[in-house]
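Hi! If you just cloned this repository, the fastest way to understand the data is to look at a raw example. We've pasted two of them here, unedited. The first protein comes first, obviously.
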Amino acid sequence: MADISRFPSLVLPFAITGAAAGWLSAGLGGRLITQPLAALCATVVAALAGAILKRLCVGRRYPYELNPPDPELRPATDAWPLHVAVVIATGAATGGLAALFIPGCRFRLQCAVGGAVFAIVFVPVCLAVIAAARRAQRARLGSIVAGCDRRAVWGILAITLAVTTAEALPEWSPAMAGYGLTPVVALALLVLTGVVTLFLRRADAAALKRARRELEAGLTARHEADPEPEDAGLVPLDLGLGDGVLARTARGAAAYRDRARTVALVRGSPELALGALQGAVRRGTVGLVVIGMMGALHAAAARVPAVVLYESRCDLGDRSACRMAQLLRRDP
């Protein structure tokens, strides 16, 4: 059974996903739907879905169960088909709720079906966040790896949301611009995900540097027969993975009279912890590359319609448009 104390909350990540999904999906509908109101409806419904999905992932623990929860065991309700069904139902509920407040949704069933269809695009986002939250149970609370795993939930959310901004690429077309729709919010979301990913990568890199600094300082395996540290305030550094204990000792100035004393303790497996931290740093690097590629894709999408628009005006005899189209074609 999953450990509910280690399983992160999914309410806020799913609320953010819902807000992004509502806004981006509504943008594809042109004037048929109001983006702010659609985003608000999706935020509320998605937050509720996040609470439901966490309950499905952790299962139910009965009072008579005395053994501690095993994070490796997954309840029957923690299954991806059920998660996908909840996400699609969330989209349908958002569409039905939007039909109550948005005049453009004349048929509630039609809007509910549309919401379910748009939710399919965000199924990979939700499954990736759930997988990261499930993996966050592996490390002990308060450890270095535990903090890294909890940051991974937000890191994966940021990367996947950056990819979903591709849904706003059609808004760069001149036809959509005629409706007053431009992907400003999508661009802001892309920039925000880049900032968050950079911040999380720096935090993971700092955690990796700290772990390496402690592990490279002459630690040796500590046995049960070894004396306890004299300093009662000595707090061991918990790597989070593995149960072994490493210690660093030091002697006083008089080497023959002063016995060795423990000056540092590290709990956990260095190999497992360093592997997890290095993976987190690599994930941040890949995320920055992906977000940069999405930015280039938006830049290309904004440039091509502009060329087409000026060339169409040039065909109508607008000489200034001809010069602008020529400049855009030359500019790499």
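Ok, and the second one:
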Amino acid sequence: MAVRDVEWIERLIQPPATGKLSSSYCLHLLRVHGLAEHLDHGEFPSGAALLELLLDAAKATGHFGQSTLIQTRYGVRFPAAARSVRDPSMEVHQDQTLATLAELGIPLPYPLSVGGRTQTVRDALSDSLANFSLDQEELSWTALAYALYLPPSKGWTNRYGEGYSFNELADALMASRLEKASCGGVHVAHALTILKRVDRDWRVLSDGTRMRIGAWLRTFRDAALRAQDPEGFWRLGTIGVDDAKRDGWTPPDSAANRILMTGHLTEWMLHLPRDLQVPSEVLVNAGMWLYRELRAASPEAMQRDVCPYSHAVCALRLLAYSLPDQIVTLTTMAAR
């Protein structure tokens, strides 16, 4: 798999030809395809069409049955569903849409349409800031969005006049119970990693917080290195989880969960700063396993489990650019 083969990898993740998509499904497709025209779908042939669907209330209502965004007194909001609710128009994780827009490089002045009015991504960020609380159910996507959109500002104030800083946000992330976190806690590690990288340019953290993040990431990284199976994959629920806090929780060791964890971890490792990077053989072994799994997977499986497979594709794409020489060897061996 040389760099020229990246488009082939990206094309593996496609929406189903029929039926309605969900907001979450669209966000995972956008992470893979960006705004490019890689989609084999009559209504949504490109990532740009998916983005328009999510950011235009009228179009979202026509597709999902209700809008993906609402007007509020503080701006615009992408509503998040409670964990027990499955609404195709709503976010699965709070600020997931805002974080995905930030990762895609969508600027704050980018227009949104809601209630016949033109708003902007900045209005969505304003509503999130106004309603921010360290006690919200999940912080990972919020932290990612803030890290990419707020600097050089080091802090913000919510609608109650309560002030917060990136130091407090980082400490709250590091205190997260990973046995309760989405995707094995890798989103927590990813948010802290991006915050650490952003801090390198903007210095939004104190010296003490910066050191604590480095130590937390090093501990999580070392636990991941120890937990990697000789075949190259990782199992869900084996990293950073205190056995005394499991309360009988043991996730199933399924193929989808292995892909979920391996794709997420490999993608995260490729974002680590230089002083925390892992040995290339760890990445090559993970990439070899992911490549074999993708070659063997059916289109139906990838459409059904878009989250794990999309992260696997993103991981392989990053590997192709980060370790091109090793990846050529990797895919030659994996294809045997």
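That's it. A detail worth noticing about the second one: The beta strands are 70-72, 75-77, 111-114, 117-120, 155-157, 163-165.
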